[in-house]
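Incident log, entry 3
Record: Saccharopine dehydrogenase NADP binding domain-containing protein (152 residues)
Problem: checksum mismatch between cached and fresh output.
Input:
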Amino acid sequence: MEMVRACMRPAASASSGPRVLVLGGTGRVGGSTATALSQLRPDLNILIGGRNREKGMPLVSKLGQRSEFIHVDIRNSSRLKEVLEGVDLVVHAAGPFQRDDKCTVLQAATFTKTRYTDICDGVDYSWRAKSFHEQAKASGVPALITAGISPG
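Fresh output:
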């Protein structure tokens, strides 16, 4: 929870609350992450990011008024950057990470100056993501990589 607090920008107003985009929010890990964030921080606006609105709407309904579905495909970098504008934190849970040889979400986050974390536990992806250290550092964006649930 401290990590979430540390990654948050101050909200524009107390009523608006910070905006967190959970990419892969229609999946098991992303959905669980969105639910946990909503319970731990009821002031958050949780955006469920995915390719399938029909699959995402049950979670949006469950989370209530402070959530919405955002249609986004992480392979479309221009749409991804558009979606990240105005988001305080992006949680990247849209795997499989092994296929992302360009770290598209991390690059978009540093470009838009959006705080970033991912749930990846893959060694190859983690090394690729670490190669963007200087880019993230130069943009002033906190980027917590490989915060996965495995190996524990």
